[in-house]
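Teaching assistant here, posting this on the class forum so everyone can see the example we discussed in section. The complex has two components, and the goal was to see what a joint structure prediction looks like when all of them are supplied at once.
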Amino acid sequence: MKKTNHRTKVMILTILMAGIVIFFYAFGSLIPGDAAEGNFLYAGQPPSWGHPFGTDALGRDLFIRTFKGMAISMTVGLTASALSAVIALFVGIAAAAGSKWIDAIVNWLIDLVMSIPHTVLVILISFAMGRGLKGLLIGITATHWCSLARLIRGEVLQLRSRQYVAISHKLGKSTGWILMHHLLPHLVPQFLVGLILMFPPAILHEASVSFLGFGLPPEQPAIGIILSESMRYLSAGMWWPAVLPGLVLVLLVLLIDQLGEQLKIILDPYSAQE
Amino acid sequence: MRRTLGRLVRIFLLYGIRMLTLLAAVSILSFVLINASPIDPVQQYILGLGTAVSPEQRAEIEAYWGVNEPPLERCLGWLSGLLQGNLGESALFRRPVADIIRERFLNSLALMLCAWLSAGIIGFVLGCVMGMNQDKWADKLLKKVCYLLSSVPTFWLGLVLLLVFSVGLKWFPIGFSSPIGVRGQDVTLWQKLHHLILPAFTLSLMSFANIALHTRQKLIDVLHSEYILFARARGERNLTILRRHGLRNILLPALTLQFTSFAELFGGSVMAENVFSYPGLGSAVSAAGLGGDVPLLLGITLFSALFVCTGNMIANLLYGIIDPRIREAEK
């Protein structure tokens, strides 16, 4: 039997992890809205076989609420990180390929966004949008594009000074042709990995901001909201609403982070031969 | 020496101007954002009063606050007040914003300073340990811990620590910076420290992974250089190599990273302060946002930007003072 090489192993691992993440998401989204209805008879029960994560103070099943909330958080995180990755791609290319003053403006803009702590900026934007989902999305999108834009700008600057780009110019190819054939093929892997690696911080920020009360409305079972509700019952010794949903969040973030790292190995041409 | 001083003044002026443009932009941007908000600060203020307000009284409040003036005029009014050091009055606390920021910042500073110092020192030492033992078990284990910690949200870690140490073991109080029912001036230093330890511990756990991983990478880069090979050939031991060649090369980037991480530090303290109900700037900013307290929200945003910019400025100046390569290049 042929021995599976490193690349195949990484590939299988990646597909497996992607499968788990998608399963998580599908499972959470398919739960109907009324499945987590409260029943005061079962309020504040510790984890058991019937309720794997226990129930909260209103008698709602925390296992269902957590996975439902996870799906909502993932939707928000995915949308926000996809939007900010696209912004980063355009801004990065514009900065590196455009004129000097566009570059200066972009750099100044990045400095501006980076000079306000993310949490404060998201609070401010959420306030400006009247709280709720829209403010949360715009806030997270607006704060996450900076580092990827910088990375893409650096990459384009480096590519532009390569000899094959100069030869292409001399051969009379247009800027658009060079962009399509010489720059984009290098940028797409960067973009994809950047997109996936932007996802964990976006989800963590979403949870943090919802926890503070600026994100999703309190009826939504988002992770941040479950955890902020659990604060009130901590001193009563109810540990499960705080610990278990957070643990699921951490596991998911770790999984997606690993997925990004594996994808980097697959897409990076320098490690392709290992 | 005079050259160094001249260069520092130049860096200072250069970044000073950049910082001023950024702060001006932050103040205008935050004003525009708040102005766009559908949340009515007057309504929030009235809700906060808890009593019924007649339309005449409401009109009076609106006139007092200048709500009906055009936005540009209000913005200019706020900016001119700002230049005179007047940040307005907080609707939530009924006190000048500048006073609240001063008082709360001292609390936050104690928290952030503890976390910043311990995270920096622990992170740097662990980074060195990982770098010196690359790919051995110590390195692998610590690297896993670092990756794990950077995937954990600050507030959840705070909650778990609160559960274990305050609720379970009862070693620490559940919140606030001083015991309830004790007057401000009667609080002893020990009591303050007692309330500070857990939030500071949470915050430093969140920030040391970054510096440790960074230091590790830098040290590995240095250890793969030819001068290290030569040093080994001369028979230098690991610790001597670290002391003579490693530390000199990795200390400056680590220090710079520490100073440029003020934004994450502040963001983390917002979360930690909210979990532990610690009365610092972080809990004030979320209270201001939830309570519709516009002057306080604007004031703290601007202050946090100033805080972050100061960190970046210090990092830039440090490079100018410490790095011998930049010093030599001047000659």
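For the discussion questions: Chain A touches chain B through 43 residues (CB under 8 Å). Chain A has a mean pLDDT of 82. Think about how each of these relates to the inputs above.
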